[in-house]
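Regression report. Comparing outputs from two consecutive submissions.

Submission 1:
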Amino acid sequence: MNTRDANSPATASESPKKTMLSAVQPTNPMTLGNLIGAVRNWTSLQRDYDSIFFAVDQHAITVRQDPKALHENTLRAMATFIAAGLDPESCTLFVQSHVPEHVELGWILLCNSTMGELNRMTQFKDKSQKEGAHIPTGLFAYPTLMAADILLYQTQLVPVGEDQKQHVELTRDLALRMNHSYGSALFTIPEPFIPKVGARIMSLQDPTKKMSKSDPDPKATIFLTDTNKQIQTKIKSAVTDSGSEITYGADKPGIKNLLDIQGAMLGEDPAAIAQRYLGKMYGHLKVDTADIVVGHVSKIRDESDRLLGDRAELGRLLAIGAAKARARARTTLDRVYQAVGFVPRG
């Protein structure tokens, strides 16, 4: 019996595993939020799915980047993926710019999108306000490149936070439009996959906002390159809430954030962790959280440093991943080229 989704193209993988894809933008070093909200989930899922993970360096240049910093942050991101437990033999790991098919499909999808759709994207609205009158064109158009990232691999599941669901919705709309316009099922229609635990880690200085790489307050974010001392200092200075009782709830966002961090690191229910702090002070929670984070982050940081010390070996692993990705991406792109009427390559 054929159980393949009726919306899936004939070229989709016939593997019993569903294809899952996600990526991180290599602007600044990765954060504890990236680790908890993305990479740790990837490591637990990589063998259950046909998994594809990459660093989106082409998305990064929608705003001006320091070239040397982008280069190093991209390599650091890939080293961190591996150090955190992603296995290059169990999943496909690569750098976006190493697979030119992303940009090629991105242009076709851009031509099949509308300005109204892109203008409605929440992240464009937020980021363009910061740019003033000089809004980069790439900032407006990059959602179609993100759609290409997903559709190239006939992706079925996209692990995303709530703030990225809109991009998956646009991707679905573009895929359905292309499938309808060209009379064939070119693309699998992807679904957002939102992890229930640890999907959203908040700023240590404003727990109503998501932890961000670009936060201007250096105490707000834990980077995976931070020293043990820096991690301890940041968590011990984290903003807490009025009162002194440690409970898990929306009425205490600062305490909830620390309990969420512990829960994600330990693989436990944050509400259950809160019960262990009955009668204890906020300081106890901060010290314990700092120790737990140091225990996990220090191992990843040290292994990332080791991998970065052997650039030839890291480059070899990235080349293998890019070759695997290109072989798959080319199959999809060839079908799309034929469907839109492009002359086949010689």
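Submission 2:
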Amino acid sequence: MNTRAAIVLGLCAMFCTRFATADSWPLPHTTDYISTDGSTKAIIVPRVLSSQLEYFEDKGSGKSPAGQRIASSIDQPFARVSQRKANGQWSTIWQQPLINDVAPVDALVASREKYLITFDNWHHRGYGEDAIVIYDARGRVVRKYRLIDFLPLSYIETLSTSTSSIHWGRGHFLTDKDETLILRVAEPSFGFEDQNTLTISVRIRLADGAITPPAGRAWERALRRSKKVRQQQKAYEQKACRDHGGRWCKR
């Protein structure tokens, strides 16, 4: 994320704290993902943490890897992708480390071992250069994305946030014989309002990571919604300025 984007998102988090929803992040665990046709399985194993508290303390002090359990040999997350054989047994195709810090939040695996797609980072949904990562049939990174790579910064600023995350989308899926990823991006919302918002679609071609930007009436509606939410944010910022005697006033 560039410096301007980081500053703006930090300011948004500061001004919207009163409306941010609480987070609950249990320690990550090993998770299986199966392709829609049942031919392929991805097992994602997280980096092993001592505790949430130690992770947060290490992050605050700049210690790396944050929260790592000393006795554990798993010091980075990894994925194992397997193919179902005719006898029903699974045969490993590839096993590689993932570029996430601790673990992705969610994933999709394509049929016939073609792709693995991971979403977000444990405890930091929507942040970082690996909000989405595409891995190919050998476990190599095709492309990784920040939110700003497929959404305008002004739109990101108006998405619903919690104390640790940007809640940017849900229900992503594969189409075109699992060659295309469809992102379902949430419309903006302010505070607790409209938590079950509508979504707009962004298409990503998995072979090379090419993005088809959102367009059409749904996108126009979402942009109008974004402008409305930004007006609400500005009103709150002005109220905070008055209530705190100018402490939060923009210079």
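Expected: both submissions complete independently.
Actual: both completed, but the second showed a warning that disappeared on reload.
Relevant detail on submission 2: The chain has four helices and twelve strands.
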